[in-house]
Amino acid sequence: MAVFMPAPRSYTCEDVVEIHCHGGQQVVKSIIDLYLSVGLRLALPGEFTYRAYTNGRLDLSQAEAVARLIHARSEKSQSLALAQVDGLLSRSIFQYKEMLRESLVLVEAWIDFPEEDIPPETSTGVLSQVSGIIDKIGGLLDTYHTGRALVSGVSLLLLGRPNVGKSSLLNALLGEDRAIVNSTPGTTRDTLEESLTMGGFPVRLIDSAGLRDTGDQLELEGIRRAQGKVSVSDLVFVVVDASEGLTDEDKDVLEVCDNSKVFLVVNKIDKNCDQDLSCFLSAGLPVFAISAKTGQGVDRLREGVASFFDDGVSSPESSVVVTEERHRDSLSLCRDSLLRLRSAVEAGDSLEFWAIELRAALDALGKISGETTPDDVLEGIFSRFCIGK
Ligand SMILES: Nc1nc2c(ncn2[C@@H]2O[C@H](COP(=O)(O)OP(=O)(O)OP(=O)(O)O)[C@@H](O)[C@H]2O)c(=O)[nH]1
Ligand SMILES: [Mg+2]
User: Fold this and answer.
1) Ligand nearest to the CA of 273
2) What's the CA gap between 366 and 42, in Å, rounded?
3) SS3 category, 216
4) Which of 118, 99, 68, 111 minimizes the C-alpha distance to 323?
5) Average pLDDT over the chain, rounded to whole?
6) pTM, entire model
7) Ligand 2 center from residue 213 Cα (angstroms)
């Protein structure tokens, strides 16, 4: 079946024909070969979205969101991408650009009449507008931590000395017997990774070899790999055994971690022990008491993970959330220019200087929507798409 979508009301704003056929690989291949034999060519990765962008159907941040939508790994990241395709971020950027352009027109007009003094209402007007945008951009930048976690996912490392129950916890979180669990210390040798979602965040869960002094070369390699994962993980669960208190080996494990991204997970609380759990609080870390065996406390641990990454961006559909590093960098540049502009206005510096900063701020915002984005960055963005998108 062929569906004809005449310009301009198609995805690319051009005439488009879509061929629908049965999904078998060979059927699709035969049809494509037929079209290639009569002179058509395959689309480049992201070429349809690129055309939609150059023809004005989407701005650049919307086009990027199409790629995010295709790769969305959780419901939350999907709705975030949809909101951005819909133009939620674009509209804010457009609004700031309009306000900054107005100020620039005003400033340039006064540059043309150097003999006249700037009326005070002009500088207070520019000041209040610029301050308003600085605050709004600050708010947007605050959403990046969560936004990035939602779209790119986070990595969560299970670390600890042997036998504390790291692999058991991985299995409990996954709800399946994925990793080998055994009472022999040193069971896990290699790192093992599995994907799941926690509170809407796509999570890459990494089990690792228990850390200890050993002469076993194989085990040492596992330990080396585990330690290598520490710096690249977004959050580390340092797992300890409730019945044994915080041992020197546990403290050694904590030593290799950056405390700002560590949860102390006190496992095996089902074991009848007289150990006082308050000793674990001395490390000054968020403490979660659980049993990987019975599942007790595991839900609370999941919630803990979600709130660690969620900075209060409660409903991504209705609030603008920054998800791309590129957008974050441009927003920071814009804010830096506006902060310099504000100081210049307050210090009574020359209008030329105001104009330079206003243009720089506009240029930074234009990189998000695409007007001022360099070609190599554009190429990079569209090459991440797959063919046919
Ligand atoms: N009672 C109790 N036993 C547990 C719990 N979690 C794990 N265990 C037991 O502790 C032992 C070690 O569990 P593993 O999950 O293999 O521990 P690990 O930290 O992965 O150990 P290595 O891979 O050797 O570093 C096994 O006998 C588990 O059955 C728990 O919550 N309660
Ligand atoms: Mg293990």
Assistant:
1) 1
2) 31
3) coil
4) 68
5) 90
6) 0.78
7) 16
